[in-house]
Amino acid sequence: MFTGDRSGDFLYAALHRAGYANQALSRSIDDGLTLSGAWVTSAVRCAPPLNKPTPLERDTCAHYLASELRELLAARVLLALGAFAYEALCRLPEAVGTTKQKRLRFAHGLELALPPSRMPDARGNAPVGSPRTLLCSYHPSQRNVFTGLLTAEMFDRLLARARELEA
Questions:
Q1: 78: Cβ–Cβ under 8 A, 6 or more apart, which residues?
Q2: Model's pTM, two decimal places?
Q3: Region at 19 (left for phi over 0; alpha for psi -120 to 50; beta for the rest)
Q4: Cβ(47)–Cβ(103) under 8 Å?
Q5: Third-level CATH fold of 40-166
């Protein structure tokens, strides 16, 4: 994901600066990029027209994201890249728990304490129950980066906050 495009250039460079990636660029599946302490996924599994996924595509693919979150129960921080990702996560009990809490409006830097996960993992093991935090960032799209809506400094601060929350 994000491999070989400008959004990926921005994202992987930031992950590298924060110590989550062994290199700053990813050009192909076999370029040697490895992530440590981070997992990159998507709310949709298709390449939608004009790269604009729809709510129907989000809902159709939700079970994939839910499955990944069940595998990542020990993850202490979830980082939503954009409002679409935020909405996708907020719809999943695997991310936000089963309680209905008021959904705050998406904003860069939004930080939400999530209830501990009570979902069994994909193998049926007992729930882990770790507290989690959801952090939000503007998506690292070319438009957001080129217009300055999202800067490297803004994103670096968010990744530094993620590191603090992991401790």
A1: 89, 95, 114, 132, 133, 134, 135
A2: 0.86
A3: left
A4: no
A5: Uracil-DNA Glycosylase, subunit E (3.40.470)
Instruction: Give one word for 125, left, alpha or beta, with left for phi > 0 and alpha for psi -120 to 50.
Output: beta
Say whether pLDDT at 98 is over 70. no
Dihedral angle of Cα 36, 162, 9, 50, to the nearest 10 degrees: 110
- The string of pLDDT tens digits covering residues 56-85 is 889 998 999 989 988 887 888 999 999 999
| Residue spans per domain, the chain | 40-166
Which residue's structure tokens are 């939503």?
A: 80
Three-state SS annotation for 72-105: CCCCCEEEEECHHHHHHHHCCHHHHCCCCCCCCC
- Interatomic CA distance for residues 72 and 67, integer angstroms: 9
87, 139 contact by CB (below 8 A):
no
Structure tokens at 10: 């921005």
Q: Which residues contact 81 (CB under 8 A, 6 or more apart)?
A: 11, 137, 138, 139, 140
